[in-house]
Design brief:
The chain is of the alpha+beta class and 329 residues long. The chain contains 7 helices and 12 strands. It has helices at residues 28-36, 38-77, 98-112, 148-157, 188-227, 247-253, 269-273, and strands at residues 5-13, 16-25, 116-122, 130-137, 160-168, 171-180, 231-236, 242-245, 281-283, 285-296, 301-312, 316-325.
Length: 329
């Protein structure tokens, strides 16, 4: 037979096979080298599969958060009268706080001349039972209402009330009650205004929950990086600042590399290596991947390097760098 051989490592995401990374040899010497690096090929394929999965998950959560912010901004633009009440609530990269919902409800209650506003949310993630999350009362000495049964009693004593459902992903999440002790007939503009208020609060809740999910996803991503036994760091695409370095990278460099300057290890990879024949093409997703080998002075060793173009946390352009010592073959 011929001396040539093939070695294939699977690329998969959550047990879904996307393809194979195939290496080929054509001579006896290349076949020996292929046999020596076969296990490392599988390790790298597994690492890349895990990284791509986590970044796709992060992208999905970030997209949900972007949509939630857009819905919130649209609702605010329809109600200019609320501009003062919500001043600063939509500053970028800042999560709304519950105190802002409380203040927003106070100004809404005063504007509509209500006696109280109650906002109920689920007690837990999968719970159907609702609990009071935020409230505003015209008279602070009014009796406290902590659950729906107490609220129903208070509604029986009131002259007028409006209920708006708060939806998340088109499913019931909570309930927003507007209560008036005065005998009144709600005008159409008041009903429309209260509905807008409900949409705004719904948007705020979507942003809060979206930020929480994004933080959890980011923490899972960082935990995954720290479990890899290769040096990994994320650097800002423009400044070169290290945005994150995993435990193995910190061990390799002898200190926490996060916040440092990546140029102490690598110069600009794209400018320096564009003409040297490195792989630069779409790989699984739209991210660009470059692989090469070079001597790095601070490690006094020849290193295998993988660079993947990614978006970090809130969408900043960045590069993921994987470093490992080259095997002597």
């Amino acid at each position: 037979g011929t001396p040539g051989r093939f070695a294939a490592a699977p690329i998969s995401i959550q047990d879904k096979l996307l393809g194979f990374w195939v290496l080929a040899s054509y001579t006896e010497e290349e076949t020996k080298r292929l046999s020596a690096i076969y296990e490392e090929q599988w390790d790298v394929a597994s690492t890349i599969s895990e990284l791509v999965y986590n970044h796709e998950l992060l992208y999905a959560e970030r997209e949900n958060l972007r949509i939630a912010n857009k819905r919130l901004e649209d609702a605010l633009s329809r109600e200019r009268v609320l501009k003062i009440a919500l001043n600063g609530m939509l500053r970028k990269n800042r999560e709304p706080e519950k105190s802002e919902i409380d203040d927003f409800m106070r100004q809404t209650g005063e504007y509509l001349k209500l006696s109280a506003i109650y906002f109920f949310v689920p007690k837990g993630f999968d719970s159907k039972e609702l609990t009071l999350y935020a409230t505003w009362k015209k008279e602070p000495e009014q009796k406290a209402v902590n659950d729906e049964s107490q609220l129903l009693y208070e509604l029986e004593q009131s002259e007028a009330a409006i209920l708006h459902p708060i939806l998340l992903s088109d499913e019931m999440f909570g309930k927003l009650f507007f209560v008036s002790e005065e005998n009144r007939v709600w005008e159409q503009q008041e009903l429309m205004f209260s509905r807008t208020i409900a949409h705004i609060i719904q948007g705020i809740v979507e942003v809060i929950i979206g930020e929480s999910k994004l933080r959890r996803t980011n923490n899972q991503l960082i935990e995954t990086y720290n479990n890899f036994n290769v040096g990994i760091f994320i650097r800002d695409a423009l400044s070169g600042k290290v945005l994150f370095s995993n435990a193995k990278m910190n061990e390799m460099i002898g200190r926490d590399f996060t916040g440092g300057d990546s140029r102490m290890i690598l110069t600009d990879l794209h400018d320096r290596f564009d003409g040297l024949g490195g792989i630069r093409k779409p790989f699984i997703t739209k991210e660009k991947i470059t692989n090469w080998r070079r001597y790095i002075q601070c490690f006094d060793a020849i290193m295998d390097i993988t660079e993947m173009q990614i978006e970090w946390l809130h969408g900043e352009p960045a590069s993921l760098i994987i470093l490992r010592k080259a095997n002597d073959l």
